[in-house]
Amino acid sequence: MLRRPRRNRRSSAIRGMVRETRLSTDNLVYPLFIFDGKNIKNEISSLPGNYRMSLDNILIEIEECVNLGLQNFIMFPAVDEKLKNKTATYSYNPKNFYLKAATKIKKKFPKITLISDVAMDPYSSDGHDGLVKNGKILNDPTLPILGKMAVAQAKAGFDIIGPSDKMDGRVQYIREALDKAGFSETSIMSYSVKYASAFYGPFRDALDSAPKAGDKKTYQMDPANQREALIEAELDTQEGADFLMVKPALNYLDVISLLKSNFELPIAAYHVSGECAMLIAACQNGWLNYETAMPETLTSIHRAGADVIITYFAKDYAKLAK
Ligand code: PBG
Q: Which atom of ligand 1 is nearest to the CA of 310?
């Protein structure tokens, strides 16, 4: 035998020398769920180890993460049912606790990256990402609402705007609205390739944001489609996105890889709540080992081509890396 691949695996030092993928805490984004009020920290039962928190506890959480070297955060609001309506007006109301919280967070931690969520669902009495009329999700009338939401978020201090709504043309609409309002430096991380997935359950539990009727299949993508991802990524690139996202991550590693080889923009992957919950459950049962299965999972998303990984495991990874 002239070729023996095992020679390059025989010690930890050699394996380290030839390792192809190195995941760093720098690549990770940690999701935070914010709730209005004080001294609130409720565990999300379908996502153990993750909490809905009020601002005071969010600030403590961010400080702990920053001390672990984790600097990127994405924040989602859990909105009181009474504040929801058909047109999601609370989303851009200057009194909105989510916007006020962003300003305070950025004031205390100016160096971190804070990513927003643009979609109507947390604020919509219909629980859909777009405007609902006679059971239909209307595309173009949703855009001005998303535009106002994005500008309000940029004004509040978010560094990156994250449209997760999947309406056509929203990246360009938001880009133009931001530029017109003087926020040409605020970036857009587009949920370009977001599938109508069964793996968002714990997230919807956390925010009480499940659709009141119907599903999201007329705007989120069919899990069976791969080439359609190229259309979405191409459009978002032309429309001015700064990052292209694939969501979920693990069941869609082929799509992450496809985008990585066809586009120059940074690729983000959202390792979603249901994907993390499965692993947590197996580990809690003693069927898998968290300290080895978790980093292997994140490394495979990185190896597939994701430059940025949004994951509920970010803080635990940072701890392990330290
Ligand atoms: C909604 C939104 C969802 C997630 C992020 N933004 C849920 C949905 O589309 O219904 C899911 C994230 C996760 O499951 O971790 N705008």
A: 15
